[in-house]
Write the structure tokens for this entry.
Amino acid sequence: MIRLRTSALAPLALAALSAHAQTPATLEPMVVTATRSERAQLDVPASIDVLEREEIRDMQWRVNLSESLALVPGVVALNRQNYAQDLQISIRGFGARSTFGVRGIRLYLDGIPATMPDGQGQVSHFPLSAVDRIEVLRGPFSALYGNSSGGVIAMTTQLAPGPPEFEAATAAGAYGTWRAGLSGTGGTAPYAYAFDASRFSTEGYRDHSAATRDVVNLRGGVLDTPLGRIRLSLNAVDMPDAQDPLGLTRAQWQTDPRQASPQALQFNTRKSTRQAQFGAELSGNVARDVSYHAVAWAGSRSVTQFQAIPVAVQANPNHPGGIIDFDRDYGGVDARLQWLVGPALLTLGATYERLDEDRRGYENFVTQPVPVLGVTGRLRRDENNVVDSSDVYAQVEAEVAARWRIVAGVRSSRVEFRDSDRYLSNGDDSGSASFDAVNPTIGAVFRAGAASSLYASYGRGFETPTLNELAYRADGSAGLNSSLVPARSHNFEIGAKSAWSDSLRGTIALFAVNTDDEIVVRSNAGGRSSFANASATRRRGAEVSLGWDALRELSLQLALTALHATYSEPFLICAAAPCLQPTIPVSAGNRLPGVPAYSGLLAANYRAPWADLKLEWRAQSGLPVNDRNTDTAGGYGILSAALARSFDAGELKIRAFLRIDNLFDARYIGSVIVNEANGRYFESAPGRAWLTGLDLRY
């Protein structure tokens, strides 16, 4: 179950802890993300949870974040069974519009942003076998991370001195799916190292959905030098020719949920991705009351994607073609100082990020010597895109009374886009756009007792269009979609947290978000989307989590979310692409597509003398497929069961497990492609599926 762990405190954090620090450590779990310094979870005015290593890894595929994020209320992570498009992750409805990648949520791996400066992120390179913990922040304080309104997901991998420990892990399951990996950690203080390498392969639940993914993660550290603590990381992912089955119409799904769209087979839709990044982190103390932290990173990402755009559509001389091909270099630096000034802890920081991309578009067919689809044809787009993001931020936290703590911050953000057109056959489509905002956040915590707290917070959010959202105009032409502006939100939250005992703990949060200029899909066809700004949206919701160690052998946990997310003003969208003028009305009161009104998880873990047993019930209400709410993917509830046994063979520790997902073979739709213009909204979820694995640790 979710446990928020206590770890060694930095000197400044220790100095700034309140008088409640004498409370037993089991009642004072620690979190970092909301305040950028280690704090007792009960002292933080935000919804924030930590998933620990074993609840992410144990009896799981260790391939997708969707396996474990359901443990956190407010988070919806949908496995699309399509590795060409990655997961759909949303927090409190932010990010649900995404047809690929992750938007509206800030992602980190070992302190390195997995979100680009334009706000689009990926999680395919997260090495779940090497994970130490994942911290999830929702609500107003995510605004202090810049261009994200929904929240922050920060993963940290293992890195600590200790005796050498090595693990070989393998698993195999239904639909020709398997993974294998090798990892290790160790080092003599102050030195530490860690490595993890894994391969995942699947033939796919659906036709034309096979994929292979290799991930390597290397870390090293010198945790005591004259400069401070130094940590280095290298991460790489390679995923060649991941097949894309596209979405299905309702009739196609009802006939055969495992089929691929005929257009996917016709054009052999697929995507190849390569990414590598390096990061360096330095932290330490200048003096007793002053500490510093800096991280720098650089990386490259290459993508080639074959889409199912009909030949006739590409006849438009301004159309950028049916193949996306880009090479992207990115990097940045984030540095901050913290110092204790009387009763207050002050943080000042600055961030700069840059993305430099060469993007090309090609026809996805050739006509000579004979017509062939799904191959590289003529060049139709050639441009250079640059995104610069620069931010400065300040935070202060102080204990203003014996039981009261205030945390406040402000972040000034500026994001600039520049497009230089090198394909001049049809004129120069170069352009630029820039967006800026100053976003304040404030929260207050009242410690009602040694093991409980009440809090309230407010933050103003800022979410720019991503580079891909700016890349296509609704009329089908190339060039930046200059009509888009950022979405801006007001985010309110109140909540309560309790750790009644070592065995019982829980949280509740109520939130409201009002957003102006919400970014929505105007048209979506053939895997290519154009976007526009809706007038306004409203989100009202509640989140509940509960963990109970009912017996020494039995633990239960519950995560529930209720979310009413609607458009509060009417607007117009396009009937089809290309589109010169939107004509289809969307009514005020319509639900945001891709956002379930209710979702929940109930899990039971029983540790019998002979094995560990787990039952997990996941449920979700229906997903509207488009802004007009003309159809809905039905809700579902599925039960999974797992069995694991550990035993020793000399110095070798062995853990074997068996898992069955969707035990009663429910037939349901796992995710939807929002506003798909051809009605191919639905992405099928598997029926009953088995998984078995073996971990060998030395």
Summary: Residues 412 and 665 are 50 Å apart (CA to CA). The first helix runs from residue 11 to 16.
